[in-house]
Amino acid sequence: MIRFTHLVHGEGPVSGPAAAHSGLALAEGRPGPVVFWNITSRCNLSCTHCYLRSGPGRLREDELTTDEATALIDDLAGAGVPLLLFSGGEPLVREDFWVLAAHAKKRGLPAVLSTNGTLVTPEVARRLRDAGIGYAGISLDGATAATHDAFRGVPGSFDRSVQALKHCIDAGLRCGVRFTVTKMNHGELGRLIALARALGVHRFCVYWLVPSGRGGDVHTDLQVAPGEVRAVLDLVYRETIRTDPAVMEFLTVDAPQDGACLLARLEGDGSPAYDRAYRLLARMGGCSAGRRVANIDPSGNVYPCQFAQSEEFLAGNIRDRPFSDLWNDPGNRVLAAFRAGKARPGSQCSTCGWQEVCGTGCRVRAYVQSGDLDDGDPLCLRQGNI
């Protein structure tokens, strides 16, 4: 996650000092990772690029029970996890979602929601706020119903998602747009940002497509080209510069190398934010998978991140061993591989001057292309091409 607004301006309405009262300002020194928890594989939509292959009727028979799920929350709270992200599938279709949200609040575990928004009514938005959910990220894959609904597989989903953002704002719940860039929608990004600005949302997240789940099935056809990547990053940078950081923030996800692109632009502009941004990015050190983030799937399987849900990346299962034990086990082969990552000799990253700030980019994207976690991210604009 490259928080453009926070890096440029030093604040933001969700991730900066202004958000301290929302429970989203992560506690310094807490040892645990941010946990992305797919609480169910069920979803009322069937999205083209879903990394979990979720959809209607896709209930896993071994989905964690309510008792198992609340025990997991206890363990995460005890492990010092700074933030729990309820995801799916569509988390709101899980019948005991409110029980889980209430338990996280009881344990003092900050929680946020990733949702398609179609089930967020005014009442649900208020209930989310009261349940201690500090933020709701709502997916929009285009600035028009035609584009978004084509990705989501259900007519009318665009209008319902836009209404969900309005309901959250009316309820006083911080919310943001989650937009996955593809060849089919990158040209609508400017209009979608304008829509988000008009709605008054607090955050705009640009996700890059990762070849995982159904995203892997369509990756070849939908992945953007280098020129399109550059155009998207230029637009995000311009919007970051011109937007009041107390009103709306911008960030990109699933491409640590975006930090190098941001630094190059700050340096070119002679921005006083360059030194601070460099220090923050170097401290992060590239891909978060297995280091600052973790994923737990509906059956309790633990992975380095939500896009690494394949057999070779399985770190364990919370039914066999508590998450806290798995996470802190230095002998865990999968987690050790992600944590020890450094550029493979001879790879494009091994001779790149930006390696300190972005590592080797997205490790999953590199692995899918070459079979090597430590190879370079194929989406990187690298070196002089930035």
The gist of it:
With 386 residues, the chain is an alpha/beta fold. It contains 15 helices and ten strands.
What is the H-and-E element order? Answer: HEHEHEHEHHEHEHHEHHEEEHHHH
Compute the gyration radius: what is it?
19 Å
Task: Let me know the number of strands.
Answer: 10
Q: Give the CA-based shape.
A: globular
Mean pLDDT: 90
**End-to-end gap:** 18 Å
Number of helices: 15
Walk me through what this model shows.
With 386 residues, this protein is of the alpha/beta class. It has 15 helices and ten strands. It has helices spanning 4-9, 66-78, 97-106, 122-130, 145-152, 157-171, 189-199, 214-222, 226-242, 258-268, 274-284, 323-327, 333-339, 355-358, 363-370, and strands at residues 34-38, 84-87, 111-115, 133-139, 175-181, 203-208, 249-253, 293-296, 301-303, 316-317. A ten-stranded mixed β-sheet has the order 7-6-5-4-3-2-1-8-9-10. Helix 10 runs antiparallel to helix 11 (274-284). The radius of gyration is 19 Å and the shape is globular. Residues 17-28 have low confidence and may be disordered.
Key phrases:
single chain, about 375 residues, alpha/beta, 10-stranded mixed sheet, about 10% strand
Helices and strands, with pairings:
Layout: H1 4-9, E1 34-38, H2 66-78, E2 84-87, H3 97-106, E3 111-115, H4 122-130, E4 133-139, H5 145-152, H6 157-171, E5 175-181, H7 189-199, E6 203-208, H8 214-222, H9 226-242, E7 249-253, H10 258-268, H11 274-284, E8 293-296, E9 301-303, E10 316-317, H12 323-327, H13 333-339, H14 355-358, H15 363-370
Parallel strand pairs: 1-2, 1-8, 2-3, 3-4, 4-5, 5-6, 6-7
Antiparallel strand pairs: 8-9, 9-10
